[in-house]
Amino acid sequence: STSSYFMLRKFGTSILSLLNHPKMSIFSIRLLCEVEEFSFDPSVQTLDDLHEGMVLPGIVTNVTNFGAFVDVGVHEDGLVHVSQLSDKYVSSPAEVVRLHQHVQVRVMEVDRSRKRISLSMLL
Hints:
The two termini are 24 Å apart. Residues 1-13 have low confidence and may be disordered. This protein has a five-stranded mixed β-barrel with strand order 3-4-5-7-6. The chain has a two-stranded antiparallel sheet with strand order 1-2. It has two helices and seven strands. By secondary structure, it is mostly beta strands. The protein is globular.
C-alpha cells in the first residue's frame, strides 16, 4: 500500500475509536497524543520492486526473540534479524524496537521463490 498512514503513537489505536469513546473530546485527544504521518516508498509495491541495498521506510509489525518483522509496503513483511538491529549486542529485540515504530531499513536479500525479505537496520 502506498497510502499515508496516520499512527497514534501512544495508544496504538485509531483516531476514530478514540473519538467514539464517550469520555474523550477532541481537545483531550490533542493533549494526550501526537499524530505522526508515515508513507511507504511509492516506487515499492511488490517483491519485484525490491533490490539489495535499497534503504526504505517501514513499520515494525511484530517483535520476536529472533528479530523484528517490518512492513515496507509490499504484501510480505521483511525480517530484521536480531544481529542486524544494532551494531551493539542486543539480548532482546524489544530493547531496540517496539510495535508500530517507524524505522529505516536496508534490503539485504530478497528470496522471491520463498517470498522472504531480509532487512537490516544497520545503515
